[in-house]
Amino acid sequence: MTDRQGSGDGAGARPAEGTEAGVAGEQPRGALAGGALSRRDLLKGLGASALAVGAVRVAGRGTLGPAPASTRSLGSLARGQAAGGSTIRIGYVSPQTGALADFSLSDKYVLGKIRASSAYSKGLKIGGRTYNLEITEVDSQSDPNRAAQVTQQLVHSGVDLVVTSSAPETTNPVAAACEELHCPCVATVVPWESWYAGLGGDPLKPGKNFEYNVMFFFGMKEFAGTFLPMWQRIEAKTHAAKIFAGMYPNDADGNAFRAGFPPYAEKLGYKFVDGGAYTDGTTNYVTMIEKFKSAGCEFYSNAPLPPDFKIFWTQAVESGWRPKLATVAKVMLFPSDVFALGKLSTNIATDAWWTPYSPYKSSLTGETTSDLALGYQQQSGTEWIQSMGSTYSLFEVAVEAFSASGEPHDHASVAKALHSVSYHGMCGPIDFASGPTPGVAIIYPVGIQWKPPGKKPFGGKSFPFEPFVVDNTLNKDVPITGELAVTEF
Asked: Which of 132, 187, 360, 419 is the most exposed, fewest CB within 10 Å of its CB?
C-alpha cells in the first residue's frame, strides 16, 4: 500500500486486454459507465420501483393533510416580513438519533463553524439591509414520519428556508413537506433519483421542475462510475468471475439501487444476482448468502442500513462467502461503522463525496477541506467524516440563495434564487441549473477503501482504520492516496 501518492495503482489504470473498456481508464468527468444506457435498459431495471421510492413522499404528505390557509401564503412578502423582520431563519433537519445517526456525528462541530463565520455571526447584507441569520436544528430520529412532522412545524413557525441531509428516510419527507407548504428547501446526501421520485418525478423522464426544492449529490450513474472501475481493476488482477451479488432492501435507497445500478454493470458484462428485497432490520441473511455463494458471486454491491450490513457481513464471513471486492453504499461511510467490524473492514470499498484531500475551500471563510477535517479531529478526538463537507455546503448554498433573492422572507423569491445558485465552495462546484434535471447539482465522488493507517496518517494521529482514496475516475481533483486491493477477511 502506498501512503498518499498520486501514482501507483491509480484510477488511470486501463482494463486488461479482453475486458470491456468504458469505465476504467481515461474518460471525461461524469462519463457514463460502459456507454450511454438506453431507456429500455433503465426500464428493465427500474420497473415499478420508482413508485416504491416515491412512497416515502406519499407517507410524508399523508401526515400533513391539506395546507392550512395560514401557510398557503407563506411565500408572500408581507407575511414574510412580519414573521421574520431582520432575522432570517433556517431550519435544519437531520437524523441525530436512530439508525442513521452516524451521518450527523459532526453536526455540532460544523454548525459551530458556520455560526462563527462572518455571514452568520455579523449578519448578511441584502439590498442595503443587514439580516441576522438564525439556525434551528431538529432531529428526524431516522424516522420518515417524524421528518415530515418536524418540517411542518418548522414551516409553521416561520422559517425562511429548510435544509436537510442524510438518506431518503430524512430528505424525502422533508422535501415533500416543503413543496406542499411552499417553503424553499435544500437537500443533500441522497441519490438524486430517490429524491426526485420522492417528490413525484419520474427519473426515467427527468425535466420536471419542483419549484421549492433543490438538491446536490449524485446518482446511479456516479455510483457506477465510482464502483465499476474498481471492479474492472480487481478483475484484471485476479481473473475474478464477472458475477455480482446485490444486497438491496425494500426501501427508497434499495429500490433505487436495484433499479438503477445493475444495468450499468450488465453493460460491462457482469451478471447480477439479486439477494431479494428484504425488510430493513432483518437479522438472518443465511439464505441470501447461500444464494450468492452458489451463484459464484465475486463482487458485492449493497445499499442497506448500517446495522443491517454489520450483521450480514459477519454472517457472510462465518458462512465462508468471500467476494474479491465489496463496494458498498450508505454503509462504511463513517469510522464508527468500520471500527464496529474490526479487521473485517479491511479493504471494503465505498464512495466518498468529500475528503480532506480535495482542493476545495469554504465560500464563507476560505477555510480548506483539510482545515475543516483537522479541526473536527482536534475538537472531537475522533476521525473526520465525509458528511461534514456536505452539511457545511448546505449553509453556503443558503447564503448564496438569500443574497440573490433580494427579499429573504419571500419564499417564492428564495426558491427561484436557489435554482440559479452556481458557486464553488466546501464541496467544490455546485450548479443547480446543470442537471440532470432542474434543481439537481451533481458533485463527483471518489472510491475509497478502509485500511490500517499508513506511515503518515491524516492529521498525524492514527486511528484503527483510515479511508484511502483508491480511485478518482470521476473526480481528478482528488489525489490517489492508497492502492486498490482485494477485500481481506
From this structure: 132
pLDDT tens string 36-62: 444 344 333 333 333 333 333 333 333
Q: What are the strands of the beta sheet with 299-302, ordered from one edge?
A: 271-274, 243-247, 299-302, 325-328, 349-352, 446-451, 466-471
- CA distances for 255 relative to 194, 252, 276, 375, 379, angstroms: 9, 5, 11, 37, 38
Average pLDDT of every residue of the chain: 85
Q: Provide the grid cell at 190.
A: 441522497
Note every long-range contact of 203-208, with CB atoms under 8 Å and residues 24 or more positions apart, other chains counting.
Answer: 203/46, 203/50, 203/260, 204/39, 204/42, 204/43, 204/46, 204/50, 206/435, 206/436, 206/437, 207/437, 207/438, 208/437, 208/438
CA 360 distance to own-chain centroid: 18
Main-chain dihedrals φ then ψ at residue 290, nearest 5 degrees:
-65, -35
The CATH number of 221-352+446-471 is 3.40.50.2300
Phi then psi for 254, rounded to 5 degrees? Answer: -60, -45
The grid coordinates of residue 394 equal 448546505
Length of the chain counted residue by residue: 489
Contact 71, 114 (CB under 8 A): no
At 98, the amino acid letter reads G
Domains 53-218+357-442 and 221-352+446-471 share a fold: yes
Q: Are 189 and 386 in contact (CB under 8 A)?
A: no
Span 139-159, pLDDT tens digits: 999 999 999 999 999 999 999
Q: Given pLDDT bands bounded at 50, 70 and 90, which one contains residue 28?
A: very low
Q: What superfamily does domain 53-218+357-442 belong to in CATH?
A: Response regulator (3.40.50.2300)
pLDDT value of residue 256: 83
Rounded mean pLDDT, 22-32: 36
Domain boundaries of the chain, sorted by first residue: 53-218+357-442, 221-352+446-471
CA 312: distance to chain centroid?
22
Which triple of cell numbers denotes residue 377?
A: 479531529
Share of the chain above pLDDT 70, in %: 83
Backbone dihedral angles phi then psi of residue 215, each to the nearest 5 degrees: -155, 155
Q: Is 366 left (phi over 0), alpha (psi -120 to 50) or beta?
A: left
